[in-house]
Amino acid sequence: MSDNKDLRPQFTRGAVDVVERKSAYNGFFKLDKLRLRHRLFRGGWGSEMERELFVRGDAVGVLLYDPEHQLVALTEQFRVGALEREAGPWCLEVVAGMVEEGESLEDVARRELQEEAGVTAQELHFIRSYLPSPGGTCERMHLFCACVDLRDREGLFGLADEHEDIRLRVFPLETVMAAVDSGDSAIDNAASIISLQWLQLNRERLR
Questions:
Q1: Active-site pick, 86, 162, 174, 204
Q2: Which of 51, 70, 138, 147 is 20 to 30 A (C-alpha) from 168?
Q3: 3-state secondary structure of 55
């Protein structure tokens, strides 16, 4: 049995030998092709393998919550990755955006809140950071919660020059929580589910 007090993996970055790394595509997204090998649990090194890596930097997601009126706001927008989704490719999500060079995580959170929701948050509560899909991308998502007055905040937002067509929707907290608890496909992306589950655990201290 593993020692439950020590969750660290056996190996670190030094146990990977990147033989070659080259760009396979550089457009709206980036794709690198790697030839590498790594150490094995049974000892020694494995043989060389090829892997494609979807290259994305850090991203920030912000859950909008109104503790006084028990409201939650989510963005609704078209997502090409959800094209074949049974419920359709318009997804309910937390406000989100990519970190640009020189920006702090908090800078990104406040910029995206303005662009996608038209709100200014005085305080950001850090939720957690995580890797959305480490089997194929290097992206890391950083989640926050912003407490704001959400009354009469619904509207249309986004930057036209970035092809953003965003609808901000405001829901009663209990409606959103019931959807997450039931596994409703209306909210089926990791950032939103993680943020809402965190809110379920921490809502009392945000009052």
A1: 162
A2: 138
A3: strand
